[in-house]
Amino acid sequence: MTLRITWKRVAATLFTLFAAGMLFAWSGLFNVAASSGHWPVTDWFLHWVMRNSVKTHAAFSAPDDPRAQQELVSAAGHFAGACASCHGAPGRRPSPVMQAATPPAPDLAVNAKEWTDKQLFWILQHGVKYSGMPAWGAPERPDEIRRMVAFVRRLPTMSVAEYRSLTEAAAGAGVAGVKDGVLAGCAGCHGADGRGRGQPDIPVLGGQRPEYLLAALDAYAQGQRHSAVMGNAAAALSADEMRALAGHFAAMPGIGTNAPAGSAAAQRIVEKGLPEIQLPACASCHAAGKGYPVLNGQRASYIAQRLRQWRGEKEVVDARKSHATMPVIARRIPAEMIDPLATYLAGGQQ
Amino acid sequence: MATLSLAGCNRHQSALAPFGVEASSTRDLTIILLIGAVVIAVAMSLLIRHAIRTPGERLTHRQGMKLVLWAGGVVPTILLFTLLVTSLPAMRPLPTSRADLTINVEGEQFWWRVAYRPPNAARVVSANEVRVPVGRTVALKLMGGDVIHSFWIPGLAGKMDMIPGRTNTLVVRATKPGRFRGVCTEFCGLSHALMAFDVVAMEPAAFDRWLAAEAKPAAGGNALFAQYGCGGCHAIRGTGEAGAIGPDLTHFGARQTLAAGVLPMTTANVASFIRHPEKTKPGVRMPAFDHMPPADAVALARYLQGLK
C-alpha cells in the first residue's frame, strides 16, 4: 500500500501532533520536580545548548577587557554574601538546600576553568535561564563584574587561608543594635576601621557625614544607586541597622582632616570651577556646613571611578543619560582633569 | 484683510500687532506688498481672460511687440523700482547715540542672559525678561553664549541671529506700553521650542524706576540656597552668592514666568522645576536636584518668589 503525501495530510498531521503536545502539557503528566533530576540525555542536551549559547554570545557582546587586575576584596565579599551558598567556596561546602536544585550550581573550583574570561563575564552579566543563575544585580556596573571575573578566575587555586583573608577582617568592637555577623559583613570589605582595606574601589567611610552614609545605604537598598555588591549588602539591613552603621563608621577617624593638594588646574576646578564650560566649583557644594558628602582625603581611585561611572559610556548621547546632579556635572569635567582632580581632593596621594 | 484679522489671535507675540517702530514699518510694507500682489494677480487674470476670448490676428506684429515691451518690461520695472525705493528706508537701522540705553542679550541653552547698560550708570544683570522704555531708542547687543540662537520679538522688530564670538546689533524703539513675548527662532537643542522670554514695554518714568529697583541687591540670603550649593551657578546680588553659569536670580520673584517664558511663576512650578528641571525642559543645562526633599524645594521656591 502506498501513502500519498498531500498538503492536506501534512497539515492534519502537524495539527494532530500540536494538539497531542498541548493535551500532554495540559494534563500535567510532565514532571517538573527538581527532585527527579534530568535524564542523562536531557541533561547533556540542555548543557550543550547552554554552552553553545554562552560561547556565541560572549564572543559578540562581552568586552575585550573582561577581567580586573586587582581589587579582589569587594568581589570576594559579594561572593561570600551572594554566591557561596549555591556554589560553595574554599573551605565552605555549598548549602545542601541549594544543591537540591536541578541543575545544582557547579563547583567553580572545577567549573571556572572551562570558561574564558569573556565567557565568565557574559555569564555573570546576564545569568543563565532555567538554571537559577541570576543576572548581575546592577547592569550599570561592568566594573563590578570585571572584579568578580578576576575573583572567580582565582577560585580553582585559592587556598582556604587566602579566601578567609579576602573576606574576613577583624570586626573590632560591636555596634549597639547591629548583630555581630552583620557588622562582620561590613568589615569584611570596609575594614574594622572603615578605611576600605587599602582597596582602590572601596571608599574611606570614617569622617564622612552620617546623613550621607545613611542616604547611600538607603539608595543602594532601593536600587536607586547602582551596585550589585552594596545593593545585596544593604537590602538585608533594617532602617535602624542602617542608621547605627552609618553613625558607627562616620564617627571613625578618616577623611575630612587633610587639606587637598596637587595640580593648580585641579585646584581651580575645586575652588572656582570652569564657568566658560559651565562647570561649577566643587566647593560650591562640597564644603563644610553644606549638605553634601565630604571629599577631602577620600581615596583618589574611588573618586575617579565614581566620576567615570557618572560620565557613562561616550557612545551614549547625554540626552539618554541620567540628569541627576552629579552625572550632569561629571560630564562637564574635562576628561583629562578627572585623575588630577581626584588626586588633588585626596590630598596628593593616589 | 483676512491675514490682518489673524493679528487678533495673539496680541503678545505677533508681527501683525506691532508695538515698535521697525515692526510697524515691516507690517506696513507687508500690507503694501499684499495689496500690490492682489492688484497684479487680478490684472493678470483679466488680461489672460481677454486674450483667450479675443479672436486671433487682432493685433499687428508691431502692436504685439509694443504690448510686450510695456506690460512685460517697462511697467514691472517701474513697479519693482518703486517698491525697492519705498522699502529701502526700512532696512536702515534706527540711528543711535551714546545717550541711548544698551541691552546685552546672550542666548544660552535654553534661556537668556540680559544685562542693561544705561548711559552713565552701572550695568544691571537680569535674565529671561527684556524691558524697554516706550519712545526711547534702545540698542540690543545680541550674542550667542554657547550655540547659535536667534532673537525675535515679533511685535517689536525683525529677527536677528545670536552667534557665539560675534555681536549683532538690533536697534529698536517701542511705541506703546504692554507685556509681550519673544522667542528663539534658530534650532538650538532639545528645548529650543521652550526658549522664550517676556518683553515689557514701559512708560519711560516707570522704566527708570524699575531699572533703579532692579539694580538694587536682594533683601537677604537663604540658608537652603547656600546649603544646596545653588550659588555655584546662580547669583543673588548682595548675598555673596555669585555664580555666573545660570540665570541671575536677584529679582527672580519679579518675573512673571519661569524657565524662560515657559511656566507661570507659581510656588509649585518653581519647586518642581528645582527638583526636576529636565521634566519641563529636556536637555536643560541645570542638573536635577531630586535629592532635595520636596518640603525644602517648596521653602526655597517661596524664598525665590519673595525676591521682588
Could you describe the 3D structure shown?
The complex is a heterodimer of chains A (350) and B (308). In chain A, 51% of the residues lie in helices and 0% in strands. Chain A contains 16 helices and no strands. Chain A has three domains: 56-165, Cytochrome Bc1 Complex, Chain D, domain 2 (Orthogonal Bundle); 169-250, Cytochrome Bc1 Complex, Chain D, domain 2, CATH 1.10.760.10; 264-346, Cytochrome Bc1 Complex, Chain D, domain 2, CATH 1.10.760.10. Chain A is mainly α and 350 residues long. Chain B is of the alpha+beta class and 308 residues long. Chain B folds into two domains: 1-54 and 93-215, Immunoglobulin-like; 223-305, Sandwich (Immunoglobulin-like), CATH 2.60.40. In chain B, 36% of the residues lie in helices and 22% in strands. Chain B starts with a helix and ends with a helix. Chain A binds chain B through residues 215, 273, 275, 278-281, 284-285, 289-292, 318-319, 323-329, and chain B through 146, 190, 226-229, 231-233, 243-245, 276, 278, 282-283, 285-291. Chain A: This is C-type cytochrome. Chain A: Pfam families: Cytochrom_C, Cytochrome_CBB3. Chain A: Keywords: Electron transport, Heme, Iron, Metal-binding, Transport.
Top keywords for this entry?
heterodimer; A: 350 residues; mainly alpha; Cytochrome Bc1 Complex, Chain D, domain 2; B: 308 residues; alpha+beta; Immunoglobulin-like; 5-stranded mixed β-sheet; 22% strand; elongated; heme (chain A); transport (chain A); Cytochrome_c_Oxidase_Subunit (chain A); Cyt_c-like_dom_sf (chain A)
